[in-house]
Design brief:
Strand order of the largest sheet of chain A: 2-1-6-5-4-3
Shape of chain B: globular
Strand content of chain A: 35-45%
Distance between the termini of chain B: 47 Å
Shape of chain A: globular
Largest interface: A-B, 31 and 30 residues
Structural class of chain A: alpha+beta
Helix content of chain B: 25-40%
CATH topology of chain A: Nuclear Transport Factor 2, Chain: A
Strand content of chain B: 35-45%
Order of helices and strands of chain B: HHEEHEEEEH
Strand order of the largest sheet of chain B: 2-1-6-5-4-3
Number of strands of chain A: 6
CATH class of chain B: Alpha Beta
Number of domains of chain A: 1
Order of helices and strands of chain A: HHEEHEEEEH
CATH architecture of chain A: Roll
Radius of gyration of chain B: 15 Å
Helix content of chain A: 25-40%
Number of domains of chain B: 1
Oligomer: heterodimer
Largest sheet of chain B: 6 strands, mixed
Chain lengths: 145, 143
């Protein structure tokens, strides 16, 4: 795949994400490798499509209106780096936290390795502490200055 | 700068960071733009070299043995993306948390934008909650 193809692949993936849970899970079946390895932020590595889909199914249940905005896309070889902003309202249990109805915003950077039109490995890093503070389960420290 | 040049520059940055605070501060004067905009992993934006140097000075004070290992570099046009693992022992106050003497490991992905050989903007993202859990100030949920 050319850099242009990888960029189109990533843009399409984001479009499908923003259509909601059903569209996104269908998209995963089409565009993620059965043996995908997912190095998520704040959790153990996931191996294989089943666990990967389960993870995102639960995430959509927790934040049903979640929406991705792509802020930057950088591609070299078979790797795509996406900087994006994820928003969503906390409507279902998330990491053991009952729904708070709070609206959240997360700045995220992800790296996807795309081979033969399928995502085979993915790394995601985000401000998980900031998310917990937005949900009100970890206190936000006062600035000392 | 070519992708190859950007990668060499990132490797140099990591080497200097690993020499400790003084080398890191000198490196900032050499390779970071005076008008740098630095989007930290904690969601704050630092503007200008003075604030960025102060940020890293504080980081070295808190974690004097800070060490980073580059796991991957991806470069395109004026941007280099570095995925790295860092470790450090918490020896002094950090984000209001008194020294715990705990050794922590962070997994970061950072995007750096360069113009004319100087870093002008950076976005740093990592699992910030995990750091607080390793320091023992936020409980780690049971599986």
């Amino acid at each position: 795949m050319s850099a242009k193809d990888v960029k189109a692949f990533e843009r399409h993936f984001v479009e499908e994400w923003n259509k909601g849970k059903a569209a996104f899970l269908a998209e995963i079946d089409k565009t993620c490798a059965p043996n995908i390895v997912y190095h998520g932020t704040g959790g153990p590595d996931l191996r294989g499509l089943k666990d990967f889909k389960q993870h995102f199914s639960e995430f959509f249940d927790a934040f049903p209106d979640n929406h991705l905005t792509m802020d930057d896309l950088i591609v070299e070889g078979d790797k795509a780096v996406i900087r994006y902003t994820l928003t969503g309202t906390h409507k279902g249990a998330f990491r053991g936290i009952p729904p708070t109805n709070k609206k959240t915003t997360q700045p995220i950077i992800g790296i996807d390795r795309v081979v033969g039109g399928k995502c085979v490995e993915s790394w995601v890093r985000s401000d998980t502490l900031g998310l917990m503070q937005q949900l009100g389960v970890v206190p936000t420290p006062k600035k000392e200055k | 700068m070519s992708a190859k040049d950007l990668k060499a520059l990132e490797r140099h940055l990591a080497d200097e960071f690993n020499k400790g605070k003084a080398a890191c501060m000198a490196l900032h004067d050499e390779l970071i733009s005076p008008s740098i905009v630095y989007h930290t992993a904690a969601g704050t934006d630092l503007r200008g070299l003075k604030d960025v140097k102060q940020f890293f000075s504080g980081m070295y004070d808190a974690f004097p043995d800070f060490h980073m290992t580059i796991d991957d570099i991806i470069a395109e046009e004026d941007k280099a993306v570095v995925r790295y693992t860092w470790t450090g022992t918490h020896k002094r106050e950090f984000m209001g948390i008194p020294a715990t003497n705990k050794k922590v490991t962070g997994w970061t992905i950072q995007i750096d934008r360069f113009v004319g050989g100087k870093m002008v903007e950076a976005w740093e993202r990592m699992d910030t909650l995990s750091i607080m859990q390793q320091l023992g100030v936020v409980p780690t949920p049971k599986k």
